[in-house]
Specification:
Oligomer: heterodimer
Number of helices of chain A: 8
Structural class of chain A: mainly alpha
CATH topology of chain A: MetI-like fold
CATH architecture of chain A: Orthogonal Bundle
Number of helices of chain B: 9
Helix content of chain B: 25-40%
Largest sheet of chain B: 6 strands, mixed
Number of strands of chain B: 12
Largest sheet of chain A: none
Largest interface: A-B, 19 and 30 residues
CATH class of chain A: Mainly Alpha
Structural class of chain B: alpha/beta
Order of helices and strands of chain A: HHHHHHHH
Helix content of chain A: over 70%
Number of domains of chain A: 1
Strand order of the largest sheet of chain B: 8-9-10-3-11-12
Distance between the termini of chain A: 58 Å
Radius of gyration of chain A: 23 Å
Radius of gyration of chain B: 18 Å
Strand content of chain A: under 5%
Distance between the termini of chain B: 49 Å
Strand content of chain B: 25-35%
Shape of chain A: elongated
Number of strands of chain A: 0
CATH superfamily of chain A: MetI-like
Chain lengths: 232, 259
């Protein structure tokens, strides 16, 4: 039980860091989703923007997140852009996530059946309206689960911001440990907090799906039972 | 470019190819106002491709499409013909209704919203006018009670009738049907065919790709038989169906009728 009491001891120390990590995730996703949508549209278009966009996406996906963070935080001032570590971390994480999210959204756009575009075209909708009113609303429904999944990866990825001294969860844990040498207690607590938030999000957003499946299984079972011959 | 003709739709020398595979070969076809034309023939005959070239869902790589005497898909720029852009094609398509084999209703919208959407965003009607019109068209196809249902909770036959209402709300000059009953149980197909029969009676100009030989014989004014990307034979429905002249047509019809 000493681990639990250690955790209780360090919790107030780590709590503000957890809040910073959550804020980082939210801001990074707020950058990444709109930017990723733009990149996805660019990469799916048939005009000349296609290849430069694909290049940009592949560079973004190919570059490790930490390199991106360093680039924004330390490289920025060289071109006159000095950012606080929180802003740099959000931007860096957001840019990397945008590259990945653009691929998720592109897959969602492709998953909308061809007939939907044909019907829009046959009705005389212009390409922009076809996209905005028919394709995008359907693609969004398709990509929400993978986007939530990616949001969890971004949340865990906020620990990279430790490297540019953003006071997020991992740096709080590390600082507490370096004073007390209680590495096991602080790092397991940090890990547990990351896991608790990640699993809570999965649980909250995934639960309706499981429920839905359970319900349809029950209906199936009910239907099967109804069709079984009575024994009496 | 005023052209004197009684034809509503005129196809001249239409060719359609996918990559290097040509599926429609130099087809000429004229459809008069109020006429119902059934396109029949074996699969792979190019019926659907020909139909889809009328509203440029398949861009013909040769030939001309004229709707009400106006050349479509091509602009006259200082005497030179240049391909129309997508905005201009959209304008053309608003005059041509299309009904698909797979319905293609918008699954994220209610039946009513399906019928409203293109009226507002294509024709620029006010929402209230569009809603009123959508109600009328749903009633027209006998589905006023399904207005607020999503397509997924409607039967296939109902979905196809909503699709017909959606096309009619645009005030098309011409309706294209691409195997509208092929995805339906015979029982549900009948309600769709009855709706189409009523449209024909009301004087709508229709081009129908179909495997429903009874429908072709009873409802169509003219039957066009296609095989291998060409029109083999055409004429008044009863004549082509009961008294085909061409050997290829005879083979097809006897195969279909003896099924």
């Amino acid at each position: 039980m000493s681990l639990l009491s250690d955790w209780a001891h360090f919790f107030p120390e780590l709590w503000p860091g957890l809040l910073v990590s959550i804020r980082l995730t939210v801001v990074a996703m707020l950058i990444a989703v709109p930017l990723g949508t733009l990149l996805a549209v660019g990469a799916s278009s048939s005009s000349w923007v296609r290849w430069p966009t694909i290049l940009l996406v592949e560079v973004g996906r190919g570059m490790p997140g930490l390199v991106m963070l360093y680039l924004v935080y330390y490289g920025g001032p060289q071109i006159g852009v000095s950012l606080t570590s929180f802003v740099a971390a959000s931007a860096g994480l957001g840019l990397t996530a945008a590259a990945y999210i653009s691929e998720i959204i592109r897959a969602g756009l492709i998953a909308v059946p061809r007939g939907q575009r044909e019907a829009s075209r046959a009705l005389g909708l212009t390409p922009w309206k076809e996209f905005r009113l028919v394709v995008l609303p359907q693609a969004i429904r398709i990509v929400i689960p993978p986007l939530i999944g990616y949001g969890i990866i971004v949340f865990q990825g906020t620990s990279l911001a430790f490297a540019i001294s953003t006071p997020e969860l991992l740096s709080r844990a590390y600082n507490a440990a370096s004073i007390t040498f209680q590495y096991t207690a602080t790092l397991t607590l940090a890990g547990a907090l990351y896991a608790a938030i990640s699993l809570a999000v999965i649980g909250l957003t995934g639960a309706p799906r499981f429920l839905g499946r359970a319900r349809s299984l029950n209906t199936l079972r009910a239907a099967r039972n109804a069709s079984l011959p009575r024994t009496h | 470019m005023p052209v004197t003709t009684t034809a509503l739709l005129e196809l001249r020398d239409i060719c359609v190819s996918y990559k290097h595979h040509q599926v429609v070969h130099n087809v000429d076809l004229t459809v008069d106002r109020g006429e119902v034309v059934a396109l029949i023939g074996p699969s792979g005959a190019g019926k659907s491709s020909l139909l889809r070239s009328i509203n440029f869902l398949e861009e013909p790589n040769q030939g001309q499409v004229l709707l009400a005497g106006q050349r479509v898909g091509v602009l006259d720029r200082r005497g030179r013909a240049v391909p129309a852009n997508r905005r201009q094609l959209a304008e053309h398509r608003r005059h041509v209704g299309m009904v698909f084999q797979s319905f293609n209703l918008f699954p994220h919208l209610s039946a009513l919203e399906n019928v409203i959407l293109a009226q507002v965003h294509g024709l620029g009607r006010s929402r209230s006018a569009a809603r009123e019109r959508a109600r009328q068209e749903l009633e027209h196809v006998g589905l006023s009670d399904k207005s607020n249902m999503r397509p997924a909770s409607c039967s296939g036959g109902q979905q196809q009738r909503i699709a017909i209402a959606r096309a009619l709300a645009m005030d098309p000059m011409l309706m294209l049907f691409d195997e509208p009953t092929s995805a339906l149980d015979p029982e549900l197909g009948i309600e769709v065919l009855n709706t189409m029969r009523r449209l024909a009676d009301e004087g709508m100009t229709m081009v129908v790709v179909t495997h429903e030989m009874h429908f072709a014989e009873e409802v169509a004014d003219r039957v066009v038989f296609m095989a291998d990307g060409r029109i083999v034979e055409q004429g008044p429905a009863s004549e082509v169906m009961n008294n085909p002249r061409h050997e290829r047509t005879q083979r097809f019809l006897s195969a279909v009728k003896n099924r």
